[in-house]
Write a structure and sequence with these properties.
heterodimer; A: mainly beta; seven-stranded mixed beta sheet; six-stranded mixed beta sheet; 4 helices; 36 strands; globular; B: mainly alpha; about 0% strand
């Protein structure tokens, strides 16, 4: 009998709340974020949503195809975490049907129900990491690298610029989502590349007499002994028109591999030629192939629109760090396109990349989209099911490669948000959902930060901030060398 | 005497140093939202910071700003006098903290949160003296709310009580600071936490006076209790006050950087469209730096005297016409303004964005946010403009403007009917290309050739060529 009481109470509430005239409409509700028809993993943080601001109350019922029900009412739809988790787990592989009623000017409106699909593929990673930075131009004030538990709304800083004033931090890179081994580069007077392995930190100066700068876009070798990185002095220029604002380009760009055992760099002249720009390296899961992007160099910024990167690869010897011959995988430049951020899935099945009309920084290119290559056949296609009219760019795979996340500016063309989608064995992707928030409209509309360089993290990142402060300002650095 | 202090402080901010009020207001954006309060309260000293920003928003209106700072000075003086307790006798020392603060605030980067925090702390002195073991929670709470100046009442209670428990409380203060830092504020260096996070605009910098003033406050409170045997107590008090006034005058003169003051003054006058006043000031004294040259040249243009009087003022080449992008929160303001008027909204957007991001304590700015929103409106990037306007709509002085602008969003006819936006759309570049500061004169020429009404581009182009030739001649 007891279990009927809440249901009875809820029904009474529904009746009470919706008493008076209720208008039914065949249209779908205009909810924010757009969670209509998305596919989520069981146990994800609740997909709270808002109606347009003119609605002062909302009533929502979520019913599972495999049982269970959840209700929410208030200024926006906010679901209790535990009950949401229970409902999604109960309905893994099934559908949640969402009924929405909105109250405005003394009248209730009921829209057409919409589905949320619960995938049978779990997303077991702890959460996501990202850098928050004001999007736009050359200066930054407060930035930080954060981790967010994707099963709740808990966000915590890994490191913020308040701890290291005047130092900008670059994209952080974990080894295949495992934070036991991760690195990031700190720019500024006390700059260095921080490499943390098993809780021990090393601060390495990766610039040598034989290289043009410090290592930036990095990617770990699955064996953990190496990481590949591109060295690119980055500059920005600005457009005059009303279609685009900023162009980010590299004055030069080389590719090196670092041996973290002795901090030596593999500098191969074939990958450091001034005639070509090499960028965004990524190892395959077997560790024997290194994908990266390569473009013929042109004077910048004058001829920046001529710079188009092809997708290329080379063999890699995990014993010696030796790189093989360069082989073009996809000559995008011939078709007037440019490729960035190739990311092989950790199961070795797919390779996802960004494609724009030119350049190395798809985030500032409206036309940039995500593409998927089948590594078994070499076939490639645009991910039309997840792309939008504006920029889709930085992407990464979950540890089991059943999910991926990416950055998109689809909200307003400027502020980047993190979207998550799943992929099946045929390479079909589901409709992506934006990273859930407690009160999404308030959170996303009020923030002046972009979510930059997102990645999954298998477990919670542990980082000793007090030690980091000491390390940064001690200026004790390990100088990397060049392998003979 | 207290009233005299209030009048003196009011006069100082109202007529001698009003540009500092403008600078403080321009480098923050107080929002009436719970999130804004929560964000401030999340760091040590946050309540003082929030109260300070609440007050500083009124600096938008100059007399209100001067009045607020005068009231703060009076209240602090009275708080010191009250803290001295029943045995007080000398009145003059109670002015020391307020006067030292005036000297300290001659440095425009000193935030109002410091006097606010000090006022709260000194006001707590009587409570701390009576609180006994309640100080166990009062100390950590006070430290979290107003920052390290909570040491003032803790120390005063110890000095006044002279019991071992009172001194043990000082150890408790140290333990509290360390524990709260580890538990709740580990993204800040301990030394910043100890010296105060929000007392000075630049993090990692602790001015000497920031440490001296709390110590001087304790000393001043103690001096108030001194019993000096004299037949002429009034003369003694008057002599002390005169000495303090003289010292303050000297201190203020020493702490104010004349060139910075002048540069900020130009910006303040330009914001209020008082271009003739900029020229009047520059005729008397003009700092020899590109920022001042840029402001003066812009004022010359606005007064229709750019060609005629270019040689009358300090020049430093083409940089004195339009500055390149500089990473600070002041230099590029005039350049952003003039490029906006000339028809280069994207560079204005870049400059304003960078100016805002360069505010050293990572705050936003109502003035810059408003201009960023306008640049987005002109470009037709309405979703972005809406974000900024919604933020501004939570402020006091930008709210009406923001709501007014919001009505234009996605309404092309209304944007076209707005004289400023319509003008900028009509004179802006018709082709999309990458900007290059080195070729700014060519860009001005393009603007003028596109639209012969853009006489600003033409005049700046001519001045650019003149200054380029002059510099080449010097070289």
């Amino acid at each position: 009998m007891n279990r009927w009481i809440p249901a009875l109470f809820a029904a009474l509430l529904l009746l009470a709340g919706c008493s008076g005239s209720t208008t039914r409409t065949e249209a779908l509700p205009d909810i924010y974020p757009d969670y209509i028809g998305v596919t989520v993993p069981a146990g994800i943080a609740p997909l709270n949503f808002n109606l347009p601001e003119e609605y002062d109350r909302v009533f929502v019922r979520v019913a599972g195809s495999r049982g269970g029900e959840l209700r929410a009412r208030g200024r926006w739809a906010a679901f209790p975490i535990r009950k949401w988790h229970a409902l999604t787990r109960q309905n893994a592989g099934g559908t949640l049907t969402v009924t929405v009623l909105g109250h405005k000017d003394g009248r209730w409106t009921q829209w057409q129900d919409f589905p949320i699909y619960v995938s049978d593929a779990p997303l077991t990673d702890y959460g996501v990491t990202y850098r928050k930075i004001a999007p736009g131009y050359t200066t930054y004030s407060h930035i930080g690298i954060y981790q967010r538990d994707i099963h709740s709304f808990v966000e915590e800083p890994i490191i913020e610029s308040t701890l290291t004033p005047g130092q900008c931090m670059n994209c952080h890179t974990a080894n295949a989502t495992d934070p036991e081994q991760f690195l990031f580069h700190l720019r500024g007077r006390h700059g260095a590349t921080m490499i943390q392995q098993g809780g021990a930190r090393e601060w390495v100066t990766t610039k040598t007499d034989s290289t043009i700068g410090n290592v930036a876009y990095c990617y770990w070798h699955p064996g953990g002994r190496w990481f590949a990185g591109s060295i690119n002095p980055v500059r920005q220029s600005f457009w005059t028109g009303d279609q685009r604002t900023i162009e980010v380009f590299d004055l030069a760009s080389d590719l090196v591999v670092m041996d973290v055992r002795d901090h030596s760099l593999v500098v191969d002249p074939r990958f450091t030629t001034p005639d070509y720009l090499e960028s965004s390296p990524a190892f395959t899961p077997d560790g024997r192939t290194l994908y990266f992007c390569r473009a013929k160099a042109f004077p910048v910024p004058q001829e920046v629109e001529k710079i188009r990167y092809d997708l290329v690869r080379t063999s890699f010897d995990p014993e010696t760090g030796a790189l093989g011959d360069i082989e073009t995988v996809f000559p995008a430049s011939r078709e007037g396109h440019s490729i960035s951020f190739p990311r092989p899935s950790y199961d070795g099945r797919w390779l996802m990349y960004s494609q724009a009309d030119f350049g190395v920084f798809p985030i500032s290119h409206e036309e940039a989209d995500l593409w998927l290559m089948d590594l078994s056949t070499g076939e490639t296609r645009p991910l039309t099911e997840i792309n939008s009219p504006v920029s889709e760019s930085f992407h990464n795979w979950s540890s089991d490669s059943r999910w991926f996340l990416f950055s998109s500016r689809r909200e307003d063309g400027l502020y980047v948000q993190v979207y998550i989608a799943s992929i099946d064995e045929q390479g079909r992707c589901t409709k992506p959902f934006v990273l859930p928030q407690k009160n999404p409209r308030k959170y996303y509309h009020n923030t002046l930060y972009s979510f930059n360089a997102p990645d999954f993290t298998k477990t919670r990142v542990r980082f000793d901030t007090r030690g980091v402060y000491r390390d940064v300002f001690s200026d004790e650095r390990i100088q990397s060398t060049v392998k003979p | 005497m207290t009233a005299l202090l209030g009048v003196a402080v009011f006069v100082f901010w109202m007529w001698l140093y009003p540009q500092a009020l403008h600078y403080h207001e321009q480098n923050q954006l107080f929002l009436f939202t719970w999130d804004y309060l929560a964000e401030r309260l999340a760091v040590p000293g946050g309540l003082a910071d929030w109260l300070s920003e609440f007050l500083v928003q009124f600096f938008y209106v100059r007399p209100a700003g001067a009045l607020i700072l005068a009231l703060l000075a009076i209240l602090l003086q009275r708080a010191v006098w009250t803290a001295a307790g029943e045995h007080r006798s000398l009145y003059a020392p109670s002015f020391i903290p307020s006067l030292l603060l005036l000297v300290h605030m001659g440095d425009v980067e000193t935030l109002v949160s410091f006097p606010v925090a000090l006022l709260v702390a000194v006001s707590l002195c009587p409570l701390f003296c009576r609180a006994g073991w309640h100080r166990l929670w009062l100390i950590p709470l006070g430290w979290w709310l107003v920052g390290p100046v909570i040491a003032v009442p803790a120390l005063w209670a110890a000095v006044a009580g002279l019991k071992w428990q009172d001194f043990a409380m000082l150890a408790w203060l140290a333990v509290s600071v360390y524990a709260l830092h580890r538990l709740l504020a580990d993204q800040y260096p301990l030394q910043d936490i100890v010296s105060g996070l929000n007392y000075y605009r630049r993090s990692g910098v602790t001015p000497v006076l920031q440490a001296v003033i709390p110590a001087a406050t304790l000393l001043a409170t103690g001096l108030c209790c001194l019993r000096i045997r004299t037949r002429h107590p009034r003369i003694l008090e008057a002599a002390l006050c005169a000495a303090l006034a003289l010292g303050t005058w000297g201190g203020v003169s020493a702490s104010c950087d004349k060139d910075t003051l002048e540069t900020i003054a130009y910006d303040w006058l330009i914001r209020n469209e008082r271009y003739a006043d900029v020229l009047k000031r520059a005729e008397k004294y003009q700092p020899r730096n590109p920022v001042s040259a840029c402001s003066v040249n812009f004022s010359l243009f606005m007064e229709g005297q750019l060609r005629q009087r270019l040689a009358d003022f300090y020049q430093c080449g083409t940089e004195g016409l339009v500055l390149p992008s500089i990473r600070d929160n002041l230099s590029d303001i005039t350049s952003a303004e003039l490029l906006w008027m000339m028809g280069m909204p994207n560079i204005t957007l870049q400059y304003c964005f960078d100016l805002q991001e360069a505010i050293p304590n990572c705050r936003k700015s109502g003035r810059f946010t408003a201009r960023i929103a306008e640049c987005n409106l002109v470009n037709g990037w309405y979703a972005r403009a809406e974000r900024y306007l919604d933020i501004l709509s939570h402020s006091l002085f930008y709210r009406r403007w923001a709501l007014d602008r919001k009505a234009l969003i996605r309404d092309e006819s209304r944007v076209a009917a707005d004289p400023v936006y319509a003008y900028i759309r009509s004179v802006r570049f018709r082709n999309d290309f990458i900007t290059d500061y080195a070729a700014l004169d060519k860009m001005m020429a393009i603007l003028y050739n596109q639209n012969k009404d853009n006489f600003m581009a033409a005049e700046y182009y001519q001045a650019w060529q003149l200054l380029k030739q002059r510099r080449a001649g010097h070289e």
